[in-house]
C-alpha cells in the first residue's frame, strides 16, 4: 500500500500550546487512526522500535492512519514537561483533532509501551468521543506505582535512572532551542553513564542535579504516600469512566506486570460499559521491560517465547480490526487471556485472570530457628507446624542484600537485560545470614503455580519501621535457584498506602507481602524456595529503620533485628495459586 508521511505537523491544544506530530497516511482515503504519544522523541523510537511496539508501517500497510506525537515539553513540541500532569487533556485534544481531519474516518485507537501506555490510560480516563480501543503495553494504570511498589517501597534503580535519562533528554532539547546549559547536559550524561554513586547516596532525595533541573522529580519524591497528588493524575481513580476495550500486554519479569494484571482484572469488573468489560484482552510472555527475546543468562525459554514469534503485531491488528473497523470475526479466535507458562515453556489460552480453576494453597514456614542461608533448616510444607518457632536476622541498610536480576531495568538495552534482568540464579545472595530460605521437598510430580502470589508473615522488629522482602524461586536439580517473582512491604504501609502506621518495636505484627503474578510449572526434580529478607537493593530503596522520612530525612540509618515467627499461633505461610488439571 502506498502512503505519505507528514513530519512535525504542529497540533494545537486547548491552551494554545502546539505539539509536534508525525502522520503516516495511507493513500487509500479516510481510515481509522492509531495514536502514539511519547516523551522520548518520535523519530528515535520509530527508527529503532522494539518487538512489543509494532512499527507504524505495519499498521499503515494494513490501511490505518498512524499518528506519532511528542508529549508536551519534549523534543519538537512546545510547552513545559510535567510528569503525567498534561497527558490526559493533551490526549483528548489530539483525539479530537485527529477526528476532524479528512484522512480519518472518525475512529481512533492507540498503542504503545511503558510511558506510551500510560498516555493511553490518561486519555482513556477522560472517555473522549471516538476513542474506540487502546493497547497499553508494560504500563501501569495507577501512577503511584510508576514510582512506588504495591508495598510502598520505591523502585529506586528504575526511578533514578529513568529520571536521569529524561533529564538528559530535556537538557539536550533546551540546548537545541538556545536556552540550555551545556554543563547541565554533561552532568546529566555522567549520571546516566555511572549512576552507582547516586544510587548509594542517603537520603535518596539528595540528588542536586535532578532537584535543580527537574521539578517533576522533586514533586513525585515528595509524595511516597498514595495521596491526592497521585489521585489527580492516576487513571485508576477514574476506571469506572473508561469505555474503551483494551489489549493489555506484559512480561513476567517486567516491573509493571503486577499493574498489568490488576488493570485487566479491574477493567473486566469496573469499566463503564458492558462492551468495555467484555472486550479486555491480556497477553503475558517471559519478558522484561526491555528484552522480549525469551533468552536470559541463566534461562532460555525457547524460540516460541520471542515476542515476534508470538505475533504481537498480529494480535494488535486483529484487536483493532474488530474495534475500529467493526470486523467482529477478526479476533474471534483469540482467547481473553494468553499466557506463556514457564517450566513447560508453552503458550496457553485461558478464559480469564486469575484462572477460574485456581486453588489457593498454603505452604507453611517451618524451621528450628536456623533458616538463615540456603544451607539452613528452613522448610516450606503443606503441613501446618505443630510447635512455635522463630527465625532472626539483622538488617543493616549500609550492607543491603544486592539485587540480582528480577524485575529490573539494567543498562545496555536488550543485551543488558538478557544478562542482568529476569530469571537469574539467586544462589550468591543465599549465603548471607540476613537471607532466610524456606524450601520444599523435591517434587516427584509437576506442580503448576499460575496466578497472584502472596505471603502472610508474623513478624517483629526492633525498629519502628523496616522492610520485609520475599522472592519465589524455582530450584533446579543442578542447584540453580532461579527468580520467578518477588515483593516488598514497607512495614509502615502494612495496613494502607494512604495512612502509614509505625510498628510497636519488638511486638508481633501480621502483615502480607504481595509478590505479584507468575506462571510456572515446577517440574519433577525441582523444588520451590522462598527467600525472606529486608532489602533488595538497588531495585528498591533502602529502609533506614528510623521510622522517619526515608527520602529526605537526615537521621543515620540503624540496624534492625527482625524476626519471623511461625507455628500454630503465628501461621506464617506462602499462598500459591495452584492449577491442577488432568
Gist of the model:
This protein is of the alpha+beta class and 582 residues long. The protein contains 14 helices and 23 strands.
Can you walk through the features of this model?
There is one protein chain. By secondary structure, this protein is α+β, with helices and mostly antiparallel strands. Helices cover 23% and strands 29% of the residues. It is built from 14 helices and 23 strands. The strands form four sheets. The protein has a ten-stranded mixed sheet with strand order 1-2-4-3-5-6-7-8-11-12, with helices on both faces. Strands 13, 14, 15, 17, 20, 22 and 23 form a seven-stranded antiparallel sheet that branches. The termini are far apart. 54% of the residues are buried. The model has no long low-confidence stretch (mean pLDDT 96).
Descriptive terms for the model:
582 residues; 14 helices; alpha+beta; 10-stranded mixed beta sheet; 7-stranded antiparallel beta sheet
Amino acid at each position: 500500500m502506498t502512503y505519505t508521511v507528514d513530519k512535525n505537523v504542529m497540533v494545537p491544544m486547548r491552551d494554545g500550546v502546539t505539539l509536534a506530530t508525525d502522520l503516516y497516511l495511507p493513500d487509500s482515503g479516510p481510515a481509522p487512526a492509531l495514536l502514539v504519544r511519547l516523551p522520548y522523541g518520535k523519530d528515535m523510537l520509530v527508527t529503532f522500535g522494539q518487538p512489543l511496539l509494532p512499527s507504524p508501517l505495519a499498521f499503515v500497510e494494513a490501511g490505518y492512519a498512524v499518528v506519532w506525537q511528542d508529549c508536551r515539553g519534549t523534543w519538537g513540541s512546545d510547552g513545559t514537561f510535567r510528569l503525567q500532569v498534561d497527558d490526559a487533556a493533551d490526549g483528548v485534544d489530539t483525539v479530537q483533532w485527529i477526528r476532524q481531519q479528512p484522512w480519518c474516518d472518525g475512529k481512533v485507537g492507540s498503542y504503545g509501551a511503558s510511558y506510551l501506555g500510560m498516555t493511553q490510560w490518561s486519555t482513556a480516563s477522560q472517555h473522549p468521543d471516538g476513542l474506540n480501543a487502546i493497547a497499553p503495553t508494560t504500563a501501569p494504570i495507577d501512577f503511584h506505582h510508576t514510582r512506588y511498589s504495591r508495598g510502598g517501597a520505591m523502585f529506586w534503580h528504575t526511578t533514578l535512572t529513568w529520571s536521569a535519562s529524561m533529564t538528559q533528554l530535556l537538557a539536550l532539547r533546551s540546548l537545541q532551542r538556545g536556552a540550555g546549559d551545556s554543563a547541565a547536559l554533561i552532568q546529566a550524561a555522567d549520571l546516566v553513564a555511572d549512576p552507582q554513586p547516586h544510587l548509594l547516596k542517603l537520603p535518596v532525595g539528595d540528588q542536586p542535579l535532578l532537584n535543580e533541573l527537574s521539578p517533576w522529580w522533586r514533586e513525585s519524591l515528595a509524595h511516597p504516600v498514595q495521596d491526592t497528588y497521585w489521585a489527580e493524575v492516576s487513571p485508576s481513580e477514574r476506571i469506572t469512566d473508561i469505555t474503551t476495550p483494551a489489549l493489555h500486554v506484559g512480561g513476567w519479569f517486567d516491573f509493571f506486570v503486577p499493574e498489568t494484571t490488576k488493570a485487566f482484572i479491574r477493567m473486566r469488573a469496573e469499566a463503564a460499559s458492558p462492551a468495555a468489560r467484555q472486550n479486555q484482552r491480556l497477553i503475558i510472555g517471559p519478558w522484561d521491560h526491555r528484552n522480549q527475546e525469551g533468552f536470559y543468562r541463566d534461562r532460555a525459554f525457547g524460540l516460541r517465547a520471542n515476542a515476534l514469534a508470538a505475533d504481537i503485531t498480529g494480535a494488535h491488528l486483529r484487536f483493532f480490526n474488530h474495534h475500529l473497523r467493526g470486523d467482529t470475526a477478526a479476533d474471534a479466535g483469540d482467547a481473553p487471556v494468553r499466557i506463556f507458562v514457564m517450566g513447560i515453556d508453552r503458550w496457553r489460552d485461558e478464559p480469564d485472570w486469575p484462572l477460574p480453576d485456581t486453588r489457593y494453597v498454603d505452604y507453611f514456614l517451618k524451621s528450628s530457628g536456623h533458616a538463615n542461608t540456603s544451607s539452613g533448616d528452613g522448610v516450606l510444607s503443606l503441613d501446618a507446624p505443630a510447635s512455635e518457632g522463630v527465625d532472626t536476622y539483622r538488617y543493616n541498610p549500609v550492607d543491603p542484600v544486592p539485587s540480582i536480576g528480577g524485575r529490573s531495568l539494567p543498562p545496555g538495552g536488550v543485551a543488558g537485560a538478557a544478562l542482568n534482568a529476569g530469571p537469574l540464579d539467586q544462589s550468591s545472595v543465599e549465603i548471607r545470614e540476613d537471607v532466610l530460605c524456606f524450601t520444599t521437598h523435591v517434587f516427584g510430580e509437576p506442580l503448576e503455580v499460575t496466578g497472584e502470589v502472596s505471603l502472610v508473615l508474623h513478624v517483629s522488629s526492633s525498629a519502628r519501621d523496616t522492610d520485609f522482602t520475599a522472592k519465589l524461586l524455582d530450584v533446579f536439580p543442578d542447584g540453580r535457584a532461579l527468580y520467578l517473582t518477588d515483593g516488598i512491604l514497607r512495614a509502615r504501609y502494612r495496613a494502607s498506602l494512604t495512612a502509614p502506621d509505625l510498628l510497636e518495636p519488638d511486638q508481633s505484627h501480621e502483615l502480607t507481602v504481595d509478590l505479584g503474578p507468575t506462571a510456572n510449572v515446577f517440574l519433577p526434580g525441582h523444588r520451590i524456595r522462598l527467600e525472606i529478607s529486608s532489602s533488595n537493593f538497588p531495585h528498591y530503596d533502602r529502609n533506614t529503620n528510623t521510622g522517619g522520612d526515608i527520602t529526605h530525612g537526615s537521621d543515620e540509618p540503624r540496624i534492625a533485628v527482625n524476626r519471623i515467627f511461625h507455628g500454630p499461633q503465628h501461621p506464617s505461610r506462602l499462598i500459591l495459586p495452584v492449577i491442577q488439571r488432568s
